[in-house]
Structures are given as structure tokens and as C-alpha cells.
Amino acid sequence: MTNSIEKDRVVIFDTTLRDGEQSPGATMTHDEKLEIAGLLDDMGVDIIEAGFPIASEGDFRAVSEIAAQAVNSRICGLARANIADIDRCWDAIKHAEKNRIHTFIGTSPLHRAIPNLTKDEMADKIHETVTHARNLCENVQWSPMDATRTEWDYLCRVVEIAIKAGASTINIPDTVGYTAPVESADLIKRLIETVPGADDVIFATHCHNDLGMATANSLAAVAGGARQIECTINGLGERAGNTALEEVVMALKVRNDIMPWHTNIDTRKIMHISRRVATVSGFNVQFNKAIVGKNAFAHESGIHQDGMLKNPENFEIMRPEDVGLSGTSLPLGKHSGRAALRDKLNHLGYEVGDNQLKDVFIRFKELADRKKEVFDDDIIALMHSGENAE
Ligand code: KIV
Ligand code: ZN
Questions:
Q1: DSSP per residue over 282-335, as a string?
Q2: What is the predicted pLDDT for the residue at 12?
Q3: Angle 272-278-283 (CA atoms, 0-180°, nearest 5)?
Q4: From atom 2 of ligand 1, which residue's Cα is the shortest distance away?
Q5: Whose CA is nearest to atom 8 of ligand 1?
Q6: Are 36 and 281 in contact (CB under 8 A)?
Q7: Which of 14, 219, 342, 350 has its CA 20 to 30 A from that of 280?
Q8: Dist CA 66 CA 58 (whole Å)
Q9: Which of 129, 142, 145 should be mutated for ligand 1, with most atoms under 8 A from CB?
Q10: Mean pLDDT for the stretch of residues 306-333
């Protein structure tokens, strides 16, 4: 690879501010975008896709200012396959110390029908637009949108054209989340084996989550040879969203034994940015969402709480501190047992003997049957009233 990164490293390309913001209703203000870009830069994201400069005056301004403020990350703007889009994109990103033009066109039969281009006409357009982008910017990414539903021979042909025209990253989008993990790995592997010049570029994977397979597909693509994952915080994105950054990054960290690739992400910054993106986009994170959901490190049942108190590894495969949490949570509810109640009482400053614990536990269970969650104040009230404290 001339465009080389270390063989065992995966580049993280975050598109929260572009594909993520395309979620209906997820629009962010100018200042919010700048704040999120700063957090992405700070957590070690390699490339930030900051927006779609030709889409609006506001997008142009946001991408330009993100380009000017970036410290470590490369700043990328999106452009359709036409000269005006590419020029506008370049104007927005040209002040960044490290920049990238990302240009794309839909190559599947369905998507070719939208601009009504023949295969040959589209091939010429790809050559012309990638060449133009490359003349402006030394770092160009090209995407055949809906690649996973594009005919194999045509996909190879257009990827080769884009490489010859100067693209240094070839992104293979699963635009409609249609692919399965085995296909995802196989597609990248075969492209690298087949297309002339493929060894000189980085292949990227860009997955959508329509069938809930975006994370699995992205990791499979890496196993097939991709070295860039495109993703968003909290999996924000069109329809069912994009690959979630926190999921692929933590999967690579926790299962490095079978997926021996690393990223530059400081995982301890994950929880903070997840909460900020949820707040500014207005998209709450589901409670049971992997890594960043409220319950991802919470244990309510007695057996699990007892196991956690004895050894956290009994029920947790990663340390909460590694994603930026202060610790595990053992919420008290009707499934909780004596060990968790005693632990909570100790944390609240009460030393109880076995008889007192027995008594409080009975009243705690009565209360828990009536309440979804029993809070610290409820426990304190139980201790003092000697009767239920709802
Ligand atoms: O999903 C998609 O195909 C895209 C392209 C613009 C890369 O977001
Ligand atoms: Zn997308």
C-alpha cells in the first residue's frame, strides 16, 4: 500500500456531522457542530466528515470553521459527482491542515437510473470528477453508492477508474444495509484481489443498520482487508442509522484476540461524546444500546449483583472506566438480592447486622414490588421509618 497505514490499524472516519445529521430531526446548530467536531478531534478520530458544503450556506460555514479549528483530525467534505459540488467542497475544507474531498455517485442499476446514465456515461463522469477533485486536493475518497447492490463486473470497472484518476481511499457503502457479514468480508477481499491498483489504496466500509448488521458488517469488512470504518456516534444516521463508532471501537479493543487491529480512539471519551450527541441531536440513546446505553453496565437481578460484587468479570466483559463511566451500577429493584442491599446500605453509611438486614430486606421487597426502581432516598427512608417509604 502506498497510501499506507500500519497493517494492524483501522482508520476511524466519523460521519456524525454528515450522515448522522441526515437523520430526520437530528439537525444540529452551528455551535453544536463545532463542539461535536472538537470532541471527535480530541478523542482521536482520524477523519471527520464535517458536512456537505453545497447543501446549504450553513453547512458550508460549519465545514469551513471545523476545517479551521481542527487540531489532529483530517477534515473531509462530501460532494456529488459534479464540478460545482467538488469546487464548493474544496472551498470549505482547503484551510484545514489535513483535508479530504469525498465524492460519490450511485452505481447500482437502481441508482444509475436516477440520473439516467448508461454504464459508459457514468464511467466517464467518475473519471472526470475524481480527476478534478484530485487536481484540487491530494487526498480524495471515492464512493460507489449502493456498492453492495452493484453488478460485480461494473463495480470492479468503476473502482479501477477511480483509483487510476487518483482516489486514495475507496469506500464501499452498504447504503441500504442489505449485506450480510460473510458477503461484506468477501466483497472487500475480492475487490482487493481483483482490481488493478487496489494495493495502492485504502478500502473503507460504510454500513447502514437496516437489518441490525452494521457493526458486524463493518468488522467483517475489516477482516476482508478494509482499513477504514465509517461510523457515527450512537449509530446516528439515515433510517436505522450507521455503524456505531463506540461499538466497532470497543469490539476491536475487547476482542483484539480474534480481531487484531487497533484504532487511535481514546475510549474513555466515549460516554461524554455519546451524551453530548444525544442531547444536541435530540435522539435519546435506547437503554439497552451496546456500550453507551443506560443499562449497558447496570445489573439488577440478585444473582448478577451478587456475582458482580464478588468479581466484576463475572458479568462484564469490559471495564466501565474504559468507556468513561465511573463504575458499574447496581440499581435496586424487585430482582435484587440481600448482597446488593447490604452493599447499598454500606455505601449510604449504614452498618447492619444480619437480623436488621433481614427486616429491611422484607420491607425493601414490598416496596420494590410497587416501584420500578428503588432509589437511595427510599432506602434511607426505609432505614428510619421502619415502615415502607414510597
Ligand atoms: O450510505 C451511503 O452510500 C453514503 C454515501 C454518500 C457514501 O452515505
Ligand atoms: Zn451513508
A1: --PPPTT-TTTSTTTTB--SHHHHHHHHH-GGGT-SS-GGGGT-SS-B--B-TT
A2: 98
A3: 165
A4: 175
A5: 19
A6: no
A7: 219
A8: 12
A9: 145
A10: 95
